[in-house]
UniProtKB/TrEMBL annotation:
Alphabetical keyword list: Membrane, Transmembrane, Transmembrane helix
Keyword Ubl conjugation: no
Identification of the protein by name: DUF7702 domain-containing protein
Lineage of the species this protein comes from: Eukaryota, Fungi, Dikarya, Ascomycota, Pezizomycotina
One Pfam family it belongs to: DUF7702
DUF7702 domain: residues covered: 3-246
Annotated transmembrane regions: 12-30, 37-59, 65-90, 110-130, 150-171, 183-200, 220-244
Domain of life (superkingdom): Eukaryota
Keyword Hydrolase appears in the UniProt entry: no
Amino acid sequence: MELTVRNNISIAQIVLFLPFLAVAIILCVRHGFGSNAGWLFLVLFSLFRIVGASLQLAATANPRNIGLFVGALTLQSIGLSDFIIVLLALLNRALGSMKKGRNAIVNPRVLFLSQLLVFVGVILGSVGGSNSGSRYAETGEYKTSTLTEAGISLTIAGFVLLVIATITVGLNVSYADPGEKRVVLAVALSLPFLLVRVIYSAAGTFNRNSVFNNVSGDAYVFLGTAVIEEIIIVLIIEAIGLTLQVRPKTNDPSSQSPLLRLFGHLRGRYGNYEMERLNQSEHRNSGAFNERVNLNSR
């Protein structure tokens, strides 16, 4: 089997995101899975990219298995939101140190609500991507669903809130602890690359015939406007994360992130639901394929 450009991209993603996953796990263990830093979502993102790339390779080797194709598309569509959640959580960490010098610049609840907004977009995008994949398996035509469009709209809104919060915190970064100022720097450096990634997702969602389309789009455009940006953002976040001091545990409710724990719980529940849905879709499509083969052989 001759490898395509997308196959080579998938192989590169697996090779790169395996060590990224290891570093993300180290950061989780070091800083805590439930802390404001949101490292758990960096672990999830790395897993999504590894599993998604593996499914893409498996789908190429076994094109009759539509479930593999649907799974790869779904995982590709939901990874963007994890970045926004992680960066919002990093800003919240910086805000925690600013409280020692002056009142909070941005209310942490605003950041939590922004994360919730983005997470709702994740759910909508996941369900919409699964529906589009199932429709593609039945009709051979990939059409973006309304749920996917609503999900990417919420993601764009979350990105705008992230930019506003970053500017506000950045203008007051002098009030942060010296060791925490680099957190704001990491978020600011990530924003241009994240903007390109958001544009890629938005263009592919609202213009299905464009080169940004996940199914029929240009693989080199996908590499240059999505994959490379994701790799750079992960490198920035993990490089900064390894230099941060471990913050002591506290019982102060404002230093905890209940929404992150809620996100992890809900995403785990939804992941189980999605796997069941993919299995059902695979069995249904396999039966339809066998029926068509039998009719053609008569």
